[in-house]
Amino acid sequence: MIRICATEDVPKGTVISADVDGLQVAVVHGTDGEFYAVHDECSHASVALSEGEVEGCTLECWLHGSRFDLRTGEPTGLPATEPVPVYAVEVRDGDIYLPVGADGRPTPSNGVTR
């Protein structure tokens, strides 16, 4: 497990970008109160998802409006048609952690790689 940040660093309804051994991860505090982590790049236009809007457990890409389900990585709105990698999140003692593989990078929990 690798510590990403404190929960207070990600207020409800916001996103931060974190570098985890060279991999950009968007850490999201959904308006549903849950924490999520996804690859910080839209599968449609290769722009940072961390600059997008959060609603419930979805994240909208700021450039073309593609929406992604933060639980599965699946697009829920066009123009994106490919999912983004999703990473398991563990909240422990006020901190956000991601599990990492032997290479020091988070392993997608939905099997999608980029």
Characterise this structure.
With 114 residues, this protein is an all-beta fold. It has strands at residues 2-6, 14-20, 23-29, 35-39, 53-55, 58-60, 67-69, 75-77, 86-87, 90-92, 95-98. The chain has a four-stranded antiparallel β-sheet with strand order 2-3-4-9, with no helix packed on it. A hairpin with a 2-residue loop joins strand 10 and strand 11. Keywords: 2Fe-2S, Iron, Iron-sulfur, Metal-binding. This is Non-heme iron oxygenase ferredoxin subunit.
What descriptive keywords fit this protein?
114 residues; mainly beta; 4-stranded antiparallel sheet; 11 strands; 0% helix; 2Fe-2S
Please outline what is shown here.
It comes from Micromonospora humida. The chain is mainly beta and 114 residues long. The chain is 0% helix and 39% strand.
- Report Rg: 13 Å
Distance between the termini: 21 Å
What is the molecular shape? globular
Count of helix runs: 0
List low-pLDDT spans.
Answer: none
Order of SSEs, N→C?
EEEEEEEEEEE
Task: Classify the beta-strand content into a percent band.
Answer: 35-45%
Number of strands: 11
> Which sheet architecture does the biggest sheet show?
4 strands, antiparallel
Class from helix and strand fractions: mainly beta
Average pLDDT rating: 95
Spatial sequence of strands, sheet with the most strands: 2-3-4-9
Portion in helices? under 10%
